[in-house]
Amino acid sequence: MNKTLAIRITICLVALSIVSLFIWALLRYKESRQAIAILPTFESETLWGDLFDSSKSLNSSRRTAILFFHPECEFCTVELNGIIRRHNECRDVFWVFVTMANPNEIQNLLIDCPIDAISNSVILYEDTPKLHSLFDVKGPPALFIYDYDNKLIKEYRGAISIDTIITDLK
């Protein structure tokens, strides 16, 4: 009888632990969603070493698209090339490109994929994952689109077609 009781107690404790972890994960997810539901203000270093202050540069006269990328990511390169080809279709968008890649890797990418030539854009370089943590980005590509009221309207984690991106930005 004692052995059966011990097994039942163990099963209850394991089940309680699983439920607790699930609730904790759900609350953490909800908190991360609330943190970016409205475009957060942040400061970050640009690729060129300047300080970018979102509160001064991002405003309600334009929509904002924040793209997390890495030069070695093939999906990222496809998206970046698509944005370069079609950025004229969404001129009222301010592009924020964010990466943790080595500056030399980024410079090499810019030769073939000149995202720095897009007007109304900035490339942010992070040596610590401050924005990656804020937006809960585990890996590139990740795209966050905000409307004129700085409200998050679309979020993509993983590869997305340029047609879908352009449709969402119109």
Please give a structural write-up.
- With 170 residues, the chain is an alpha/beta fold.
- 44% of the residues lie in helices and 21% in strands.
- The protein has six helices and seven strands; from the N terminus they run αββαβαβαβαββα.
- The chain has helices at 2-36, 54-57, 74-86, 103-112, 130-134, 162-169, and strands at residues 43-45, 51-53, 63-68, 93-99, 121-125, 142-146, 152-157.
- The strands form two sheets. Strands 5-4-3-6-7 form a five-stranded mixed beta sheet, with no helix packed on it. A two-stranded antiparallel ribbon has the order 1-2.
- A hairpin with a 5-residue loop joins β1 and β2 (51-53).
- The protein is elongated.
- 25% of the residues are buried.
- The model has no long low-confidence stretch (mean pLDDT 84).
Secondary-structure map:
Elements: H1 2-36, E1 43-45, E2 51-53, H2 54-57, E3 63-68, H3 74-86, E4 93-99, H4 103-112, E5 121-125, H5 130-134, E6 142-146, E7 152-157, H6 162-169
Parallel strand pairs: 3-4, 4-5
Antiparallel strand pairs: 1-2, 3-6, 6-7
